[in-house]
Design a protein that fits this description.
about 160 residues; GMP Synthetase, Chain A, domain 3; Ribosomal Protein S8, Chain: A, domain 1; 2 domains; about 50% helix
Length: about 160
């Protein structure tokens, strides 16, 4: 069993390895960005913050697709450094933070609809990060949510809590 201190040390090592990898990528691409490393709960979190507005847009890509790919590469770098599977989260230019806020508002609107009609609400297809955000909001509201379908068409259904 891994102690809390050991776990924290592994997460810090993950963050450092991912940050080193991403710093090299920024250098190769000749892009400016400040890298912030944090540990939140049971995940290392690395953020690349914009120095100049719009510099990092290509690293986010359409609907965060490039960001998702870079996150997987950063996870591989972290895993190679620690020998453990990484669940590291990467954010670039605040994209995930903004998206999280949009998803929380979307979830709340759907929750309100389920509470007023008593009928389930199906949301549009989302990636795993987006579904996790919505599931958390729904859980905190006292309702029930489940994912259905197969990626990339996997979506959430929000339902009234079972009595």
């Amino acid at each position: 069993m891994t102690s809390t201190a050991e776990s924290s040390s592994i997460l810090e090592k993950e963050g450092d390895a991912a940050a080193d990898y991403l710093e090299g990528l920024l250098d190769i691409a000749d892009l400016d960005g400040d890298i912030d490393i944090d540990v939140e709960g049971d995940r290392a979190q690395v953020s690349i913050l914009e120095v100049s507005k719009g510099d990092l847009a290509n690293l986010v890509g359409e609907d965060g697709k490039v960001l998702d790919a870079l996150q997987e590469l950063a996870r591989l770098a972290a895993g190679q450094a620690t020998g453990e599977r990484s669940r590291l989260m990467l954010d670039i230019a605040g994209f995930r933070l903004s998206r999280r806020q949009e998803l929380e508002a979307l979830a709340q609107t759907a929750i309100d609809e389920v509470k007023s009609t008593g009928e389930p609400v199906r949301l549009a297809a989302m990636n795993a990060f987006e579904r996790k955000v919505v599931h958390d909001v729904v859980t905190n509201s006292g309702l029930v949510s489940e994912s259905e379908g197969v990626d990339p068409d996997r979506r959430i259904v929000i339902k009234p809590a079972e009595a």
